[in-house]
């Protein structure tokens, strides 16, 4: 397989009475630090069972191996569980909710192995996988685990593109063949195939205007970006431009954002949480929405107006379940038409 565009199935937009896309919502479990049990899996399993019965469309895990503190949203040392293993366990205790990686760092694994692991997860979950892929960024964990010297961003982006091509070749070609600078396939008859037809959706994470969004336009089914509504709208515009150059339908791609959410039932609870959870508010370009359900609905409508169809959020106090319940019961129905 070579690098030309491979487009996926056309996805029809759902439009509400005001002409806006109806939004769907995913929840990322992050961080594991605030768990009330010694085994973080127990807390994850508890949330997964709740989310499966809620209005959330999907549940996501980050792909990391080491958090020692002093990172945005991860200020203290915390336990970390491997992404795909944990998603496999979640798939066996849930029935409906879609499961995603946000996002698998390509440098950590051979992409052919990733395709096999993703296929296995899609089979175990009966077709609920969303495969999120990215170039990776965490230098300390990569070098700390002895995987070598962390490569430059330009090399990692080339690896990301080749990795996507490897996964698509294994899912689309029989036999699959690929010759790249970093990866190769030697006429592999991959068996079995995933449950989803033609294959599980691929999310490509990142805001890079020249390369990342071009990769989304060329290969992806989801993008995942962040920023305020004006920034996000601009990124979606760049994605549209890439699609036009590549003769790809812009509407085939689900436009997704990542945000942090702190929710309270009233202004007093919001103020208390703002102080209690201040260490878990990301710094940098990622957006945090803090407020009551009505406030969050207004803020999220700003994203919907610039074309956002999907929101993946993370709550630093997810362990308590109640803030997740409040968002699912009050915010999602107002934006998703439930």
Measured by DSSP, the beta-strand proportion falls in: 15-25%
Q: How many distinct folded domains?
A: 1
Query: In percent, how helical is the residue content?
Result: 25-40%
Query: What is the CATH first-level class name?
Result: Alpha Beta
Q: In the CATH hierarchy, what is the architecture at level 2?
A: Alpha-Beta Barrel
* Structural class by helix and strand composition: alpha/beta
CATH topology heading: TIM Barrel
Shape: globular
Report the uncertain regions. Answer: 1-19
Strand order of the largest sheet: 1-2-5-7-10-11-12-14
Q: How can the largest sheet be summarized?
A: 8 strands, parallel, barrel
Elements, N to C (H/E): EHEEEHEEHEHHEEEHEHEHEHEH
Distance between the termini: 43 Å
Account of the 3D structure:
- This protein is of the alpha/beta class.
- The chain has ten helices and 14 strands.
- The protein has one domain: Luciferase-like domain (TIM Barrel), CATH 3.20.20.
- 38% of the residues lie in helices and 20% in strands.
- The strands form three sheets. It has an eight-stranded parallel β-barrel with strand order 1-2-5-7-10-11-12-14, surrounded by eight helices. A two-stranded antiparallel ribbon has the order 3-4.
- It is globular, with a radius of gyration of 19 Å.
- The N and C termini lie far apart (43 Å).
Outline of this structure?
The protein has 338 residues and is α/β, with parallel strands linked by helices. The chain has helices at 40-52, 83-93, 111-124, 139-144, 153-172, 212-219, 229-246, 267-276, 293-305, 322-336, and strands at 24-29, 58-61, 67-71, 74-78, 98-101, 104-105, 129-134, 176-179, 184-188, 202-205, 222-225, 254-263, 287-291, 310-314.
């Amino acid at each position: 397989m070579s690098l030309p565009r491979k487009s996926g199935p056309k996805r029809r937009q759902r439009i509400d009475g005001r002409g806006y896309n109806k939004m769907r919502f995913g929840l990322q479990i992050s961080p594991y630090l605030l768990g009330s049990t010694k085994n973080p899996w127990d807390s994850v399993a508890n949330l997964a069972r709740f989310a499966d019965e809620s209005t959330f469309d999907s549940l996501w895990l980050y792909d990391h191996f080491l958090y020692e503190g002093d990172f945005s949203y991860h200020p203290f040392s915390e336990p970390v569980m491997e992404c795909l293993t944990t998603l496999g366990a979640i798939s066996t205790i849930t029935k409906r909710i879609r499961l995603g990686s946000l996002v698998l760092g390509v440098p950590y694994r051979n992409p052919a192995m990733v395709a096999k692991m993703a296929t296995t997860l899609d089979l175990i979950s009966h077709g609920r996988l969303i495969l999120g892929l990215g170039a990776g960024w965490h230098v300390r964990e990569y070098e700390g685990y002895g995987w070598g010297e962390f490569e430059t961003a330009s090399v990692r982006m080339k690896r990301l593109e080749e990795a996507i091509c490897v996964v698509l070749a294994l899912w689309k070609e029989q036999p699959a063949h690929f010759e790249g600078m970093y990866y190769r396939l030697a006429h592999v008859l991959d068996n079995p195939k995933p449950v989803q037809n033609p294959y599980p959706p691929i999310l490509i994470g990142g805001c890079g205007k020249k390369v990342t969004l071009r990769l989304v336009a060329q290969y992806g089914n989801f993008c995942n970006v962040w920023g305020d509504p004006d920034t996000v709208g601009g990124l979606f515009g760049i994605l549209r431009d890439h699609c036009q150059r590549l003769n790809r339908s812009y509407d085939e791609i689900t436009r997704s954002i990542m945000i942090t959410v702190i929710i309270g039932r009233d202004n007093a609870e919001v103020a208390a949480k703002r102080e209690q959870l201040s260490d878990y508010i990301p710094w940098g370009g990622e957006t945090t929405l803090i407020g009551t359900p009505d406030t969050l609905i207004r803020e999220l409508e700003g994203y919907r107006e610039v074309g956002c169809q999907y929101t993946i959020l993370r709550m630093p106090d997810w362990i308590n379940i109640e803030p997740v319940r409040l968002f699912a019961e009050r915010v999602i129905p107002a934006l998703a038409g439930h």
